[in-house]
Design a protein that fits this description.
6 strands; 7 helices; alpha/beta
Length: 176
């Protein structure tokens, strides 16, 4: 293979740490694993949650989602998000990043309804909510997370640094 020996290839594979923002473990505090993933539409979210179920069997999964791109906020994705989030035990949807721009460009009737998504998930027995403040998201997760939980933070952007905020709140002992 391009001049590499089997041993060199093996050494390279053993040192591979994965791809950034694809099931990237950002930290573990108080037994809670916080993971970053670039998932930003229903298919990617479903795939990420399915992979997490396989990688962390028997553990409670949190799905934190920031609808960041204009396309991720489209009404036609609403039912796809509902289906995808059924793999999670808890769901928090953050602020719709381009809400005002979307409303101005396409109209509110063409934008997904986060309250509808939350209501449907709650109806189906999945703890869900929308929190628009990143600090409040971190506090809510730290308050209710327990050892063994896996928190999947999914966005095509920085999600307000919520990964580090959650780890910091857990480290400070919020909720313990």
């Amino acid at each position: 293979m391009r001049g590499l020996s089997a041993e060199e290839i093996q050494k390279g594979l053993e040192s591979f740490r994965g791809i950034k923002r694809r099931m990237e473990v950002r930290g573990i505090e108080r037994g809670v694993t916080v993971i970053d993933d670039f998932a930003h539409h229903p298919t990617a979210i479903a795939t990420t949650l399915h992979g997490a179920r396989r990688r962390y069997p028997g553990r409670r999964l949190w799905a934190l989602f920031e609808p960041r791109s204009i396309s991720s906020s489209r009404k036609e994705f609403e039912s796809g998000y509902i289906d995808a989030f059924h793999e999670a035990d808890r769901v928090i949807v953050g602020p719709v990043f381009h809400k005002q721009r979307y409303e101005e460009r396409y109209g509110i009737e063409k934008m997904m309804s986060v309250p509808t998504i939350v209501e449907r998930l709650e109806h189906d027995g999945i703890a869900a909510g929308q929190i628009d403040d990143f600090d409040q998201i971190a506090k809510a997760v730290a308050k209710d997370a327990r050892e063994g939980d896996v928190v999947l933070v999914m966005s095509s952007g920085a999600f307000g640094g919520v990964h580090e905020k959650i780890l910091s709140e857990l480290h400070r002992g919020i909720g313990s």
